[in-house]
Amino acid sequence: VGAGKCACCGHIPQAEAPATGDCIAALDLTQTLADKAALLSFQDRGDDNGDLSTWSRATEPCRDGWDSRDAGWRHVMCCSSYIGYVCTGSNTARVTYLGLNNKPGVRGKLQDLSAMTALIHLTLSHCNAVSGVANFLGMTQLRELNFYGTRGAHVNIATLQSQSQLSLLWL
After folding, report:
1. How many whole angstroms separate alpha carbon 108 and alpha carbon 85?
2. How confident is the model at residue 24, as a pLDDT?
3. Beta-strand (E) ranges in the chain?
4. Shortest CA distance to 169 belongs to which of 159, 86, 152?
5. First to last CA, the chain
6. β-sheet bridge partners, residue 27
7. Cα dihedral sign, 17-35-122-12
8. Measured between alpha carbons, how far is 33 from 86 in angstroms, rounded to an integer?
9. What is the mean pLDDT of each run of 10 residues along the chain (171 residues)?
């Protein structure tokens, strides 16, 4: 592997990139920052029960705890692949998993999440204060989508037609 390249995958990391102990295959800092901004905007709408309290402007979602739903940014993972809810791949430096189940105090707007184009898994089930219209046009990696029991969430079905990877859909 040449100088300045990742020892495990050979890609050239960006100097400003979030540092992790894991190989990051293709890092785009702009998209990484867009993921974080989207999550923080979603959180800013309201979190009455503190379910999103580990999300902070001072930390990064794809650093410590990137492969765990319970460590780092709770309910968020940055993994290249999953078996169920278990991370089985490497750190992508992009948010690929957002799983909020039965979080009645979370009041985010679905529109805030539209910039998260690397999402593989999105669950907002029984989050009755979440609202808005979901647009999935840029989410080409989405494989699992679960809005079951979230009454304020509306899905633009036309934007789901481009989701050739989608294998699980609960509305």
Report:
1. 22
2. 45
3. 76-77, 82-83, 86-87, 97-101, 121-125, 132-134, 144-146, 153-155, 168-170
4. 159
5. 47
6. none
7. negative
8. 24
9. 42 42 54 93 95 95 93 95 89 94 94 92 94 84 91 82 81 82
Instruction: Pick the closest to residue 52 from 117, 119, 112, 142 (CA basis).
Output: 112
One-letter identity of residue 68: S
For residue 91, give the DSSP letter. Answer: B
Helix (H, G, I), strand (E, B) or coil at 160: helix
State how far the alpha carbon of 24 is from the alpha carbons of 65, 67, 92, in Å: 15, 13, 5
- Separation between Cα atoms, residue 169 and residue 124, nearest integer Å: 12
Q: Is 121 helix (H, G, I), strand (E, B) or coil?
A: strand
Residue type, 45: R
